[in-house]
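Posting for a labmate who doesn't have an account.
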Amino acid sequence: MSSTRYHPASIFFHWFVFLLVLAALAVIELKGQFPKGSEPRELCKTIHAFFGQLIFVAMIGRLTVRCIFGAPEPTDPNRILLTLAKLMHWVLYALLLALPIMGVIFLQAGGKEVHFLSWVWPQMISPNPEVKDLFKEAHEFLGNAIFFLVGIHALAGLWHHYVLKDDTLRRMLNKIKVNT
């Protein structure tokens, strides 16, 4: 694999996780349109949890692919920007792994079963309202923070593409001009 390109599996997982995050946000925002305790509201919460679990699984895949194939060398020689870019990536990875775990903890602390496909997760935490509230608030806060960070990440990609005119964005779209 060339050190100037992302592996196709990395590209797939990047955009798959992006779509899952958008879907999780859309369904949790839709939840607010329904009265508390209603079936549609509960269905939205269930679908949101399912997307969260898919995000976790996809992130394990993404990090596995990154460990095996690596990432291309950065195009920006600025050390400060390079450090910020690496920090941004690892913070996003950490949040995308932590948020689903926090969701499972606050659901179980609230006395609810957590389902994944036809499998019920083992109860890892006893019901505890204080723990539930703590993890629910942290989950919501970090969930909102991730959208801010994703926005910065997207703007940085556009800045590279339109201002610096380098191939940073094209590498994640698998569209690099080849000079022949």
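Reply:
Got it, the structure tokens are right above this. The chain has five helices and two strands.
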